[in-house]
Every structure is written in C-alpha cells, then in structure tokens.
Amino acid sequence: MELPKLPHGAVLLSTDEAVWAIVSGDHLHAADGHILADVIIIDGLRSGLIAAIRLASHELAIVRMGV
Q1: Is 2 helix (H, G, I), strand (E, B) or coil?
Q2: In a 3-state reduction of DSSP, which class is residue 42?
Q3: Closest to 64 measured CA to CA, from 53, 54, 49
Q4: Which residue among 1, 8, 51, 61 sits deepest, i.e. has the most Cβ atoms within 10 Å of its Cβ?
Q5: Are the C-beta atoms of 10 and 56 separated by less than 8 Å?
Q6: In the chain, what are the domain boundaries?
Q7: Contacts of residue 53, Cβ cutoff 8 Å, sequence gap at least 6
Q8: pLDDT number for residue 48
Q9: Residues in CB range of 67: below 8 A, 6 or more apart
Q10: What number of CA atoms fall less than 13 Å from residue 24's CA on the CB side?
Q11: Residue 12 region, left (φ>0) first, then alpha (ψ -120 to 50), else beta?
C-alpha cells in the first residue's frame, strides 16, 4: 500500500509512535474520551490500512493508505 502525498510540514509517524500518541493523550481530541474510536484507529494502524501523520500544527491526522 502506498502513502498519499503529505501536506507541507507533515511527518509520518511509525505505528508505535502513533499508538503512543493516541493512548498517552498526546493529540488534540484526547479530552473527548472516545475510547472505542481510539481502539478502532489503533487496529487500523496495526493492520496497515491507515497511517498517522503529525501535521505542522502538531495535530494528529489519520490518512488512508492507497492501494
């Protein structure tokens, strides 16, 4: 699977880095407390269907992997 073109200043996170950002609350919507959404995102990251990037604004973004 291929990663789509990243926005300027964005950094691709490894699966471990992305999972840590989610479980440690190091992202913009951590206070929302959607644990089921976090579990689904982590499963998608580990399966390789999605990837996480850190935007220049330090927000965590999820991108769908190309086929």
Answers
A1: strand
A2: helix
A3: 49
A4: 51
A5: yes
A6: 11-64
A7: 6, 7, 10, 11, 12, 13, 60, 61, 63
A8: 92
A9: 1, 2
A10: 8
A11: beta
Tokens representing 21? 């950002």
Q: How far apart are the first and last CA of the chain?
A: 5
Tokens of 8: 């300027």
d(CA 18, CA 54): 9
DSSP strand E in the chain: where?
Answer: 11-12, 50-54, 60-64
What is the per-residue pLDDT across 42-54, written as a single tens digit (0 to 9) for each?
Answer: 999 999 999 999 9
Alpha-carbon distances of 45 from 21, 39, 62, rounded to whole Å: 12, 10, 9
